[in-house]
Design a protein that fits this description.
Blueprint lengths: L20 E5 L3 E2 L2 E5 L1 E5 L11 E3 L7 E7 L5 E10 L7 E7 L3 E7 L11 E8 L4 E8 L8 E10 L3 H22 L4
Antiparallel strand pairs: 1-4, 2-3, 3-6, 4-5, 5-12, 6-11, 7-10, 7-12, 8-9, 8-11
């Protein structure tokens, strides 16, 4: 069962920019995302994306921080997932990024042997339990990356269903199965 993404523009697809890349500085927005500090590069034609036509390099001229707020239910568990790669053009092979909502999660991507045509995207993620009615997800590029940072795409936040939801689903499927079985039984 697929769950709805609580984020808007998780793949950075709301842009109409058509060049290879453009720098987005602190104070600007990428759809619902805010660039809180530093700068990021919105990538279009420069490399192959994990999904769609756009992705981000989290280090524009410096380590950039992006964030997006979304509605949550206090005490509910949520899963964050995203695609991670690294700009292989320079700045060392290890690309570092922090992400979080209620805590800090650090991720690293080794771009050794990678190129714009072969980014090697990997799926990463973490979970959190909401502590407020609105939560804010952030990603922070690391200044050690220089101007060739971690690449980000396909960001999603979904609620983890309560066990009672699964119980209702199983009960409903059992009922449907029982009805189908009764319809197939010969009548006496």
């Amino acid at each position: 069962m697929a769950h709805a993404n609580l984020l808007s523009n998780g793949g950075f697809e709301s842009s109409t920019f058509s060049g290879p890349f453009t720098q987005i500085n602190s104070g600007a927005h990428l759809g619902a995302w805010s660039v809180d500090s530093g700068s990021v590069d919105l990538i279009n034609q420069y490399w192959k994306h994990a999904e769609g036509n756009y992705s981000l390099d989290l280090n524009g001229s410096s380590g950039g921080r992006i964030s997006q707020s979304f509605g949550t239910v206090i005490g509910q568990q949520y899963n964050v997932s995203f695609s991670l790669a690294g700009n292989a053009e320079g700045g060392g092979s290890l690309k570092l990024v922090d992400a979080g909502v209620t805590g800090v999660h650090s991720f690293a991507f080794d771009s050794t042997g990678r190129s714009p045509a072969n980014m090697g995207w990997v799926n990463e993620g973490f979970s959190f339990i909401a502590t407020a009615a609105n939560s804010t997800l952030y990603f922070q590029g690391n200044n050690k990356n220089s101007v060739w940072g971690a690449a980000l795409d396909n960001v999603s936040v979904t609620a983890v269903p309560e066990p009672s939801t699964y119980a209702m689903l199983v009960a409903g499927l059992g009922l449907v199965g029982m009805i189908a079985r009764r319809r197939r039984m010969p009548r006496a």
